[in-house]
Amino acid sequence: MDLENTLYLDLKDGRVTIELKPDLAPNHVARIKELVREGYYDGLKFHRVIDGFMAQTGCPDGTGMGGSGTKLQAEFSDADHTRGVCSMARAMDPNSADSQFFICLDDAPHLNGQYTVWGEVTEGMEHVDGIKKGGGGNGAVSDPDEIVKLTVAADA
Which CATH number fits domain 3-155: 2.40.100.10, 3.90.320.10, 3.40.50.300, 2.60.40.1920? Predict the structure, then answer.
């Protein structure tokens, strides 16, 4: 395991290990590690969770409208959006990804080539499955679960 390219995502139910993919998205991986090391993600809510699709987090105000203030150029690849893949959320502009990301709860082939894949869950997917789901069509979650702590494994 490459500790510099591994994240520990601590959730209410346990630890999730995420393998980073700098070969696919070097700029996104570098930015995510920078934010993680600043403690940016600690305590942030999973504000949008759609059962059978994905769990989204990374918005500092918990609404899905906020970010860190740094937009990233898209780094689309041929990596598939399969169960456990971590990818960047964005607005309509392909170069609008910032700090929000999602973890695929199931395969989502309709996202392939349109969102930047930067990592994949290698352990603890059962804890991701346990994240509180939202209702309605948009997956907004009332009283959402939070990231307890997100750490670069090399710093743990």
Answer: 2.40.100.10
